[in-house]
Amino acid sequence: MDETVQEAKLLRQVNALIVAHLRGQSHGQAAAAVAAATMTPISAVDSIPANHLLRLVAKGLAAERGGGAASAFDSAGFGGVVPPLGSGTVDFSVQDVRGLSKQFPKHEARHVSDHKNIARCAKFSSDGKYFATGSADTSIKFFEVAKIKQTMVGDSKDGSARPVIRTFYDHTQPINDLDFHPESPILISASKDNTIKFFDFSKTNARKAFRVIQDTHNVRSVCFHPCGDYLLAGTDHPVAHLYDVNTFMCFLSANSQDSSSPINQVRYSSTGSLYVTASKDGSLRIWDGVSAECVRPIIGAHGSAEATSAVFTKDERYLLSCGKDSSVKLWEVGSGRLVKQYAGAVRRQFRCQAVFNETEEFVLSADEQNNEVVVWDALTAEKVARLPSGSTGAPRWLDHSPVEPAFVTCGNDRSIRFWKQTM
């Protein structure tokens, strides 16, 4: 009898989790239908944290693979397959948020290094311990964040803290994008020379790639799947190229959605269940991460201007995009509806991206006209800071640490600047 009661309680919990998950993914009608069919009270659903079902499934899969229930969320090293979701995420569904803007903390910028030509891109590792920058001079510089912090506080002994711990030379054309493997000490680069190159940064003497993918087009953007076994490449070809990392086999979606424009950026969501492409024709397309079917085209998201970047929120419910129409926009994934617009930063000439800070409370992007970093309150869309970049040329790129209040900028004056919050 006790087993029957326990099973009934477990079934009610599972039904409540399913309803909460559907609501969280903006499938309100489906959630209501399941709740009615299973007689699940809404009061039981409201108390469930966002993406709780995803976290439980991830833990179960990790345990099934023999890695232990906690391994998927291990923050040591490079972490696991799926990062923790839903904790402390901003609720963008709140409507009336006027007058509630947060103050952006003061940040200190330090000129860390230079390339020999324009610094075109930057990327943090998922644990925030490293970042890398790519340049038009075809080189990649690899930095250790802890050593940068030592130089900023004057804590280096005998000048031993050198932030640039490696420089990679193996491309013949400018670097377009970079990404870190989610588990292994591997950095990949995308270049105008039509290649994706793999660098092992655990080997102190390695300066060349140990593996190379030869694509058929200029590779504009790369992104690892959260499991690390696949990577996406956005190229001059209008359909994203999906590569198996172990075999280098390339797959293309059969559902191109009549796309005919090169792709500026590709990015996976936190769980890999979705990915997004931002194209030169101003469109965004959201794709199913398993079937590679386009599930939500947003045509003309930035008018006729290029869409230069797109990134999912941690809970996968929203998408932040940036374009050469000088706008940053937040979209609801489930409906494709424009939710918020962040105005006041000019970007018409150079490819740049808009990013969240580590808590998703703020949005950051570059203003190429005024040579500044512009910061908005993510919830109110109010501009809360304009930070002089300190560069003599327009900032071309910025990326924010996923784990702490720190970010990096780089641009036309070849310089790389690391910014961190000051007390």
Automatic annotation (TrEMBL):
Keyword Cytoplasm attached: no
Assigned GO CC terms: nucleus
Signal peptide positions on this chain: none
Highest taxon above the source species: Eukaryota
Ranges of the WD repeats in the UniProt entry: 112-153, 168-209, 256-297, 312-341
Main location: nucleus
An example Gene Ontology biological process: mRNA processing
SMART domains for this protein: WD40
Keywords linked to the UniProt accession: mRNA processing, Nucleus, Repeat, WD repeat
Organism (species): Urochloa decumbens
Protein's UniProt keywords contain Transmembrane: no
Subcellular location as annotated: Nucleus
Protein name: Cleavage stimulation factor 50 kDa subunit
